[in-house]
Amino acid sequence: MEPAIETRGLTRTFGPVRAVDAIDLVVPARRVFGFLGPNGSGKTTTIRLLLGLLRPTAGEARLLGEPAGPGAPVVARVGALVERPAFYPYLSAAENLLVFGVTAGLAEGPLRARVPTLLARVGLADVGERGVGGFSTGMRQRLALALALLREPELLVLDEPTNGLDPAGVVEVRQLIAALAQDGITVFLSTHVLTEVEQLCTDVAVLVRGRIVAQRPTRELLGDGAGIRVRFDSPDQAATAAAALRSAGFVVRDEAPTPVAPGTLATLVVDAPPEAGSHVARLLAGRDLYPAELAPIRPTLEAAFLELTRDPDASRPPGAGARTPGTGER
Amino acid sequence: MRSLLRAEWLRQRRRLDVWGLLAGVVLLTLLGYFSGLANRIQYFGPPGDPVPPEVLAQDLLLRNQYTFPASIATLLGMTGVGSFLLYLAGLYLGASWTGLEFTRGTIRNVVLARPGRVAFFAARLVTLAAALGVFVVVLVTLAALLPALAGVAWTGDTPPPTLGGALVYAAAVWLLLVALALAGTLAATLTRSGGGAVLVLVVYLIAEAVVTNLGFWRDAGALGWLPQLLPGVRIGGLAAAAEAAASFQVPYAPQPDPGALVMPPLVGAAIAAGWGIVIVAALVRRVSRMDLTE
């Protein structure tokens, strides 16, 4: 199946700043793809390039197998929510959807019939006839989501969709995204909320200073730091256990430092999936070794994200090395 | 294109500022018409002396301006060159019709809904021209209704202006408004703001007026034609050309300077059309290439 989004060397510079730096992105179809990165990493610029709102300095992008860019017809098959949703304040929510729907070339009659359903789907059924000028940030966000769904898109590009929503709204939007994914819509989700990505996304790409530093299935990314922590009362026991585990084929990657201060436990970290905990326990018991503690290490996406986005220059003293100019988004 | 025009109608019909502007033009016209009609030339001669015939003729001429169809030029002149309200309306609508899309950020939704940017801006210009046409039609309609309401008719020995001539003048005023609105749209896409567009155009028009009126051009020989080529002068000249073609003097219109160079109307209109093409080409290029960071 053709990827829903594919970029090759996609680059955008603003003066001397490379906001997006030669990124190669492949988003498989019919998945929920998380697009992560710190503030100013170039996420929104990338989204604007994909949607044809910005022209690339170099490289190319394809959406649903067709070329993307300013004026590209494929955008008609994409629903998008870009940061800071904007609407005509003198029109109601329903009228805004109607105007943009008619602009998109949708037949007015069926559109008028569909607008209330869409508003209900995003939780705005009761305020559909109210002027958007009085809407809160969260209400505008919901309306932007309804606008993104207006044309029954094959690909949904969402930039911070839960921004400004109350907790109930966040849950509703997550449920909506999950339902859309079940319907076979590809969702490209840019967000800072890592729990959202953990819950929803099958694949993840991490952008740092305009470059993609990781792109893989979420499960794989989370598996990178997984292991089993084993603690013993004495360093001798820990050393014996380490030898036993190594002889059984395990990789023990973090032995306890010696000498161990009195009262502290000696710790081993075994590179193994958390599910192998019982196997490790049986192996140690067979050698008459009984750990004080044996616990699975399940890394969070937050930990993985922080590791991937860590600034390598952060620990250097000021002036110790050149730093890439910031990639402020426009 | 049809759906774009329909969307424009659904959107613009709810804009209170546009309706307010139209109401303002109508109110000013009503006020101007009836106060102008009640106006009489004051003669302060010796008591008991009859009013001189030239004063009576002048008074008659003044009164005849408020009869149909001369009233068409009178009302357009009153709201146009008289108070500038009509031209300011054209400028404001041109700048805001597109500029507010950038200020509010809705241009993004529009482009995402309809990737063909040029088609969208073309539809916008068509509706803008239609809206300005409504302003002119309303004024022409008032010019037909008010003399009937006031019960005034052309008197005197001179023949009244023809209806055709008055309508040619109305069409020229509409073209002038469209040209202003077109320039406003271009300025709005360049400044990405409605307010910015108005400011840029007002500053430009003032600068152009200052340059054009410099005494230097009088003795500059062939170079004296240069200011006559400027877009503001030529587009403004459309109304003057229509006035000359219709063979009547529009009240409130500035009197031509006897020493000034006068460009043949057709040449002037051709240069104005050339400027129109330049503005449209610049607009198409700008719209199709611009980054939308809103």
In short:
Chain A has 330 residues and is α/β, with parallel strands linked by helices.
Give the number of helices of chain B. 11
| SS class of chain B | mainly alpha
Largest sheet of chain A: 6 strands, mixed
Mean pLDDT value of chain A: 85
DSSP summary, beta strand count of chain B = 0
The CATH homologous superfamily of the largest domain in chain A? P-loop containing nucleotide triphosphate hydrolases
- % residues in beta strands of chain B: under 5%
Using the CA coordinates, give the radius of gyration of chain A.
25 Å
The name of the CATH topology of the largest domain in chain A is Rossmann fold
Keywords:
heterodimer, A: 330 residues, alpha/beta, Rossmann fold, Alpha-Beta Plaits, 2 domains, six-stranded mixed beta sheet, four-stranded antiparallel beta sheet, 10 helices, 24% strand, elongated, disordered C terminus, B: 294 residues, mainly alpha, 11 helices, 0% strand
Please, could you describe this protein's structure?
The complex is a heterodimer of chains A (330) and B (294). Chain A contains ten helices and 14 strands. With 330 residues, chain A is an alpha/beta fold. Chain A folds into two domains: 5-222, P-loop containing nucleotide triphosphate hydrolases (Rossmann fold, 3-Layer(aba) Sandwich); 226-298, 2-Layer Sandwich (Alpha-Beta Plaits). Chain A has a six-stranded mixed sheet, sandwiched between helices. In chain A, a hairpin with a 2-residue loop joins strand 9 and strand 10 (211-217). Chain A is elongated and about 80 Å long. Chain B contains eleven helices and no strands. Chain B has one domain. With 294 residues, chain B is mostly helical. The model of chain B has no long low-confidence stretch (mean pLDDT 84). In chain B, helix 2 (16-38) runs parallel beside helix 7 (117-150) and helix 10 (231-245) packs across helix 11 (265-289). Chain B is 71% helix and 0% strand. Chain B has helices at residues 2-12, 16-38, 53-64, 70-82, 85-104, 106-113, 117-150, 163-191, 194-212, 231-245, 265-289. The interface between A and B is medium-sized, with 35 and 29 residues.
